[in-house]
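Our preliminary data section would be incomplete without showing what the modeling component actually yields. Below, a chain of 128 amino acids is followed by its predicted structure, encoded as tokens that our downstream tools consume directly.
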Amino acid sequence: MKKQQVTGTCSTGLGSKEDKIRWLFIALLLILGVVFNDYLRHVSLSLCLLIWCALVFGCGWLFMGTMWGSEFRRFLVLACQEMSQVVWPSRDEVTHTTMMVAAMVFAVSFVLWLIDVVLVRVLSFFVG
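Predicted structure:
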């Protein structure tokens, strides 16, 4: 029996040899960042932020070249396509529903406050 290969999903492995090398470089970059973060604590904060941004950008660039990165890129494209198909409510609809929610919150809080007042009066009558 032939084993069918499922496309469109990431396996739990790291992928090809090239992907493993990329993951190794990502790990090394992150370890390098942690080590140099302690080493560069006397340097200005802006330089540290610049170095961290470069490290994160490098890790992201390496990640996008992996199998998981290509799946993530495909997910983002599909998410953007779905977001373009969403029918967003108009400003009037949002205003009306917001006012309805605010009115219901006020009404429910007022009813709960009345119940609380009545229960306090009843309990204080029995307790003393």
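The first helix runs from residue 17 to 39. The chain has a mean pLDDT of 86. Preliminary results of this kind motivate Aim 1 of the renewal.
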